[in-house]
Amino acid sequence: MIVNYTEQGWEIITQRAHGLLAAQIAMQWRKKDRPNRWTETLIAIADHDDAQTELEADDLLTPQGGPVNFSMKKFEPEHCQRLHDFSISKSRYVALLTSIHMVFLHKGEGETNNKVKTFLAEQEKLQKQWMKELGITPKEIDKSYGLMEWCDAFSLLLAQHEVQPENRAIEVSQGPDSRQYKLMRNPNDSLTIKPWPFEEDSFSLTLESRTLATLQFKSRAQFKKELAEADVAEKVWQLEK
């Protein structure tokens, strides 16, 4: 989950909500540059964090009783295996993009952790197998994953309140076309991306969140109960060229 500390308390954004926002962003990508397997690409982007729901997880609280932000977590074998199983049950292409994303996230840990290294080596072996079976070149899948990673990065910037004030730009990520994109706020409070990579000149994005007034939880059960009972708020951003 994505955790933001606000004046009202802990703002919680689930991993699945973040994935949905990433897919909304991808859906707007210019048509001429979309991957051939467009539907599967969108599904992979939407589902790349779907292996665990917050109400089912156990590692939700810090030792001090606050909610655990996603950035605090490291490689979790069961989580990664479940994500692999979920993705391959949809298609090899979805599994391929998901596998590349897992390697991207954990390759640093693989340099010092043999368990991580072994898992990632097996994933890279499967990637080569799937590309051969699907007739996809490394260049093609690099472009598709580039879009996935870019949408993931953009979604995280929005979810973590990282849009800069006073017309200052923040880098999103290098896109699938190897261009550097920047996010900034327009004078009318809408957002824009430069250079503009989308099909339409304007559109909106939405994201659901929940805010918990309790700052320190005594147990996982208390946190889950308050999260399940919290009101849902919908964030809306307007994007304009």
Topology:
Elements: E1 2-6, E2 9-13, H1 15-27, H2 38-47, H3 77-88, H4 92-110, H5 114-134, H6 138-159, E3 170-174, E4 180-185, E5 191-194, E6 202-212, H7 220-229, E7 232-240
Antiparallel strand pairs: 1-2, 2-6, 3-4, 4-5, 6-7
Helix pairs in contact: 1-2, 1-6, 2-4, 2-6, 3-4, 4-5
Describe the structure.
The chain has one domain. The chain contains seven helices and seven strands, in the order ββααααααββββαβ. It has helices at 15-27, 38-47, 77-88, 92-110, 114-134, 138-159, 220-229; strands at residues 2-6, 9-13, 170-174, 180-185, 191-194, 202-212, 232-240. It has a four-stranded antiparallel beta sheet. A three-stranded antiparallel beta sheet has the order 3-4-5, covered by helices on one side. A hairpin with a 5-residue loop joins strand 3 and strand 4 (180-185).
